[in-house]
């Protein structure tokens, strides 16, 4: 190859692709619109209290019994994991005016939900260490990808200072949600209509969701014989889980039942008050003593969601590899969890799609595995 492979997006797929290409000796550059790496992986800590641990505002779990790629990568990077806490009863909240019902959790003995010590961000940070830091360019927003008659690719990107840069590439891996590609990147010549239709129909995973994490000095609900798992028909949180680190502090996180437009109208302050009120109703007065509370509405994140993502996710059948044909075939390759049909929405899907993209690049380069 005469020019580098350009990877658009520094999430899990993009960084994994960069790591694998680097290992194969293939030059690459990663262009990321955000001012951080990780994409939809986002782990945070309480300001001035790092001892309380890291808390995931994006993906949280993986399932080792069926997801071999992430299992192997976690081992390769020597990362520490622990099993999601699920000992104790669950709570069911069916009515606004009645107390929650307490039920015995029916365990599946062969199914484990694993979490990463230090949050999923630890996976991102470890992957970043496997590639030269200078190949990742933050606050670099790809706006146009052009292919000339000779088959040369030019990628144009806007920088934080308002300038635009042009980069020659032999191939481009689009490691970001397909709808962002359809809405925000111009192609010359135009992408085929069937490809535009396909990527426009792929809902962005998590894009209509918001997540909240309430942090406590300890997981007090365990002392009450509760697992921290709760289901609610009245909300605002629809599902609640124990998000405590493997030692030390306690945390509960929840997914909202409120649609994106409702959350926007209510505003963050009102939403968080309703969240704490619900946690008090479910887990008792001690739930009021939050050390901190984190809120991430992915529908308001312009680097994740487009307007079509604001409605609840329904079209699961649309996930899988987009049909790239014509002049763009072997020039652009899609990666990301939405492009993996079997594990879409999972970290596993993001990794498998990256590995498939790199496999295609290696074939283009005639470089043996």
TrEMBL record:
Domain Amine oxidase: residue ranges: 12-89, 113-361
Superkingdom: Bacteria
Gene3D superfamilies assigned to the protein according to its UniProt record, in alphabetical order: FAD/NAD(P)-binding domain
Pfam families: Amino_oxidase
Family matches, as InterPro entries: Amino_oxidase, FAD/NAD-bd_sf, Flavin_MAO
Family indicated by similarity: Belongs to the flavin monoamine oxidase family.
Full protein name: Flavin monoamine oxidase family protein
Species in which this protein is naturally found: Bacillus seohaeanensis
